[in-house]
């Protein structure tokens, strides 16, 4: 009976996000309350019984995963907040963008930039930088919406072919289901799907955009911190591959170096304390993450996620993989992937490649389905679940196109 109540709480939390504009209650408040309530009910039900120790272990594991994400977000957001406030991102636009560009060319430029940057950096950092770039253009909200939707899809697509780009990709690789070379084949269908979405979003977008060539004066410390940020991204990838150092640890170290360098280079004398940039972080985003991941952890504990694998008994593996990708837009893709790997379902290499693409990109279908979407929602004022949902059909078409391209590519290359 309790399991049904807990699943009902999770559904209620989702409805709270969906109807945020109707009930006028911030999604961070509803998800955090319902997420903590669910775990409290689990502890009351355990009542110091034999299952209490296991429940404690699961909660500790859940909190550990959340804190890792939190700390990483704090570091990444602090870097981007500093560079954005100093005008570094606008200065970068001055260099790489012409003074005037058509909206259609701009949307394809954004697609390629977000895709490529997320291949080099993690999804959260890539989203923060890409959205900051979009917002600096000063476009009307309806056009900004299109660019925001594209950024979410492109960022999620860019990391799917690299073991350093997406956690689920790494999990599938470590389980021996695919090789690095086979994963790299996903670049072509992933990029094709992004460009396909950009083409659909560009329909009806006419006119040109004048890029504001506002030149912000930069001090030497600003260039040094920009270098620290870039070095942190590169070293995070290298350290993770060579020594399995968690990205969170590298980014915290990079943030600490930024603090120290700014202090030693005299940044404090400009009445702009470096530590103050932590206050510019959207903490409602962090609280929303906390609530969502508490709910996902609860669903994992009661084995509700494992029940979703029944889809493989109903549909062929290809169809089931497609559905799992759609489900990952509502449920975190990491426990979904873990549940599938534990079930040891037999699939061909081509089907595992399709599954990798599905859970990596499928989260783009809903704004709450990926960290890229949640970060974007916090940055673009007025972007809600419902407004993002208006693009659901286009996103589903792009996702389906990419999924089909993966199967075709795997069939041609792997035979």
Topology:
Elements: H1 2-18, H2 20-23, H3 27-46, H4 52-85, H5 88-96, E1 100-102, H6 103-120, H7 123-135, H8 141-158, H9 167-174, H10 180-184, H11 187-202, E2 208-210, H12 220-243, H13 247-264, H14 283-301, H15 304-307, H16 311-314, H17 317-327, H18 333-343, H19 349-361, H20 371-379, H21 385-389, H22 392-414
Antiparallel strand pairs: 1-2
Give a written overview of the molecule.
The structure is a single chain. The chain has 415 residues and is mainly alpha-helical. The protein is built from 22 helices and two strands. The protein has helices at residues 2-18, 20-23, 27-46, 52-85, 88-96, 103-120, 123-135, 141-158, 167-174, 180-184, 187-202, 220-243, 247-264, 283-301, 304-307, 311-314, 317-327, 333-343, 349-361, 371-379, 385-389, 392-414, and strands at residues 100-102, 208-210. Strands 1-2 form a two-stranded antiparallel sheet. Helix 4 runs parallel beside helix 13 (247-264), helix 6 packs parallel to helix 8 (141-158) and helix 17 packs parallel to helix 19 (349-361). The radius of gyration is 22 Å and the shape is globular.
Compose a concise summary of this entry.
With 415 residues, the chain is mainly alpha-helical. Helices cover 73% and strands 1% of the residues.
